[in-house]
Amino acid sequence: MAVSIELGRTDNGQPALLDLEELLATRLLVQGNSGCGKSHLLRRLLERSAPFVQQAVIDPEGDFVSLAERFGHLVIDAAEHTEASLAHAGERVRQHRVSVVLNLEGVDIEGQMRRAAAFLDGLFAAERRYWTPVLVVVDEAQLFAPSGGVEVAEETRRAALGAMTDLMCRGRKRGLAGVIATQRLAKLAKNVAAEASNFLMGRTFLDIDMARAADLLGMEKRQAEMFRDLERGRFMALGPALARRPLAMRIGAVETESRGAGPGLMPLPETPPEAAHALILAPAPAGEPVRPRRPPPPPPADILAQLAAARPAAPASLPPPTPEEAAARRRAQLAVLGAVLGTEGPVRKRPEELLPLVRHQWSLERLAGPPPDIAAIRRLLPLVRAGITEETEAHPDWPRALDSAAALLEREVPLFLMLAQAALAGAPCPGTEALKAVYGTSSTSLLTTALKRLEERGCIAILLQAGAGRVVAIPGPGWETAPGDPEAAVA
């Protein structure tokens, strides 16, 4: 079904149309400084497309909850739900084709990243029979896919960035069409932004953002200055769903109101200084507690939390596990994950796809305690894929390899760790087939490209010795493999 929705008007008065069916296949990036009209643009897009396609909105500031009254969106207050319940909610959203707004207002930045990642993972993990089209709109996308370091736990950053990467890179085949909006292109991860084929660029002032915007629109650098002159609500459009050449448009009116609109100017009250002193600096009543900056979130209210609350209460003070118990649990997690990967087949599964399989295997083996969660699987998966042994992990220098791996792409980590383990032990360099298996490819050229990238970044150094084989060194610690036959078969 071909559907064109009107976003507004072009400079010559013609309707500015967006091909909705094309958008579902090509994704959209909206960029502009605060106050340029990004949220207004997203609201116009959501309102006009609501009758035709299911929608899921990741809303950090609660700006889009008003869609519920006019268009029937379900509002999910993230502060009232756990990450696990939000992941289940994401799956059920796909099953029942309900348009939703995930309201993250009132949640701290790290909580927003974790909850948004869990919800997106749930959308992504839906069964194939539920892969119907969904327009997934993420406002302030730089919060969830930052280009550099942020003041949150590394595990949280990776989870959010991984979920956003899945949405933009692999979501199309699952019916997920990403629409992401950001104030700063320079703060948005490049691998997330690069997957969009449609662009709406608003007013921008910083040189680095203007240059990236001009580059994405195929404009010359000298034309980038024009982004400073764009008025509020005016955007430059380009892409298969919008226009084949950069096109200026002004966004039209909307039917619903935003709770995030800035207040207008109003006259100050005429308060005499004496009265102001009494009003502002009067002592607080004795015993009145200081109100917190934000009220604490209410307890989870969904059915999963209610069922969990009905279970027998845990002991009042549960002693922490001993080092031996923690080590035994970790070995069990590694063993279960290894057993699941042994049946993985030629197509490598994502952590989200492995989670139900790991839970099933855990229950089959009747292991004590809860099964690994998604964070534990993400942490242990590279070690299992790379075949890292307990002896290697016990080596005092091994943390240096883990520190180097933290800056790599998810797919590169097992490859690097396998080489680092061989270099640390002075063992022969793994053969090409073993490296292809751990990298998850059957292509020698793709493996060669990956090794070159690692070498260019200074993670490894490769030496081919005539008649002796391949040697890989790890710069920094100075580890080096023994010569290995590149044509050696997988052990």
TrEMBL record:
Pfam families: DUF87 (PF01935). Residues 24-368 form the AAA+ ATPase domain. It comes from the Bacteria. GO terms for molecular function: ATP binding. Keywords: ATP-binding, Nucleotide-binding. PANTHER family: HELICASE MJ1565-RELATED (PTHR42957:SF1). This is ATP-binding protein.
